[in-house]
Amino acid sequence: MSEEVTYADLKFQDSSEMENIKEFDQVGVKAPPAPSHVWRQRALALILLCLLLLIGLGVLGSMFYLTLKIEMEKLEKLQNFKDKLQNNVSLQLTYNMDSLKEIRNLSSTLQEMATKLCYELYQKEPEHKCKPCPEKWMWHEDRCYGEFKKYETWKQSDLICSIHNASLVKIKNKSVLEFIKSKKFYGYWLGLSPSKDRKPTEHLDKTIISSDWFTRNTSDLNGGMHCGYIYGSYVSYDLCSNEKNAICEKLDNPVKIESILMNEESNGRM
Question: Quick one: which of 144, 150, 157, 181 has the fewest CB in 10 Å?
Answer without folding.
Answer: 150
